[in-house]
Amino acid sequence: MNENHQNEIGTEQLWDLYRVMARIRLVELKIEELYHLDDMKTPIHLSLGEEAVAAGVCAHLRLDDFVFSNHRSHAHYLAKGGDLKAMIAELYCKETGCAKGRGGSMHLIDTAVGHLGSSAIVGGSIPHAVGAALAFVMQNKTAVAVSFFGDAASEEGVFFESMSLAALKRLPVVFVCENNFYSVCSHISARQPNPDIAMRARAFDIPSVKVDGMDVGQVFMKAGDAIHHARQGRGPYLLECRAQRWRAHAGSGDPLREKYRKPEDLEPDWMRDPLSELEQVLRSRRGIGEQTIRDITGTLNAEIDEAFYAAQSGPLPRKEDLKKYLFA
Ligand SMILES: Cc1ncc(C[n+]2csc(CCOP(=O)(O)OP(=O)(O)O)c2C)c(N)n1
Ligand SMILES: [Mg+2]
pLDDT per residue over 34-69, tens digit each? Predict the structure, then answer.
């Protein structure tokens, strides 16, 4: 973690970021551990390695701000304050899930905390965030909409259309591109003539910045600027957060065992761990002991075990209700 960012962020704030990131990490490790049992009847896309982006952005959001997410949605949902039990139950397709067991991992939603939903359609929720931002303006609210999407979504026409309308109407929306350089197994260099995603916003006069997404301090600082800008009514902003996806595109596989990603091609950031980097910073501050980290881990693991137990023992939707809550 960069020394400058570290110095600008208070210790309490760093601990809050640590708790959010550790929670996402431990939840996803548990999902991974149990996934092979095949009781979770859903595809999964893990954010392991990318936790700092969701944590650093959502740390600035209020309850009435909205987040829109994609297929890799666990981190966004948890960082915005989504209900863990309802998320795990959703993975087990239980009636107690946040989408009543009908959606699975790619369709998380918790309207009570402003997580307005995830979409499996690449780029699908970007215009939703723009629409929500338009609604905020029409209702004279000071809330902000955040759209999380991947580098592949930035190749979709809807990304450009969304930026165009958001810029024209000066809407309070922050576009957060999680650039992990891959669309499934295609590297960005094989897909785009110019892989600079932040630059694309400039065609619409939208301010944008590239962010080291493995450094939660940097994400926190840059996201703070972007969200403040949008909340002040100065229009949209784009953050291109570069981060590493440690696992396979879907499921829990090791991408190095899949032929597309060879050790010699790995970006220098591959070996970095955003959570360990933050831990180092916290350890270097006075008055912080190992015990605090152990206590946080213990509390989180107890909460996670409880959520999995509740999900596993929860009710499946009744056969006669299977078409309930389906709108298309
Ligand atoms: C419109 C559309 N095209 C293709 C797909 C198949 N698909 C699912 S995820 C994915 C890659 C997404 O990559 P990116 O947006 O970079 O997110 P990441 O998985 O890297 O987090 C693709 C092509 C889809 N779901 N929707
Ligand atoms: Mg990607």
Answer: 999 999 999 999 999 999 999 999 999 999 999 999
Any idea which architecture 3-321 has in CATH? 3-Layer(aba) Sandwich (3.40)
Encoded tokens for 15 = 């601990």
- What's the pTM? 0.96
pLDDT given at position 2: 57
* R_g over Cα of the chain: 19
Residue 284, pLDDT score: 87
**Centre of ligand 1 from the C-alpha of residue 232, in Å:** 32
Q: Is the CB of 148 under 6 A from ligand 1?
A: no
**Residues 128, 122, 197, 254: is their CA dihedral positive or negative?**
positive
312, 90 Cβ separation under 8 angstroms: no
Q: Where along the chain do its domains lie?
A: 3-321
pLDDT of residue 287 exceeding 70, the answer is: no
pLDDT band at 3 (very low <50, low <70, confident <90, very high): low
Q: Which of 142-146, 247-251, 256-260 is predicted least confidently?
A: 256-260
Q: Which atom of ligand 1 is nearest to the CA of 156?
A: 1
Q: Ligand 1 pocket check: which of 51, 53, 71 to mutate, most ligand atoms within 8 Å of Cβ? A: 71
Per DSSP, the three-state class of 93 is coil
**3-state secondary structure at position 165:** helix
Distance from residue 139's CA to the centre of ligand 2 (Å)? 34
Nearest to 314 by CA among 107, 86, 36: 86
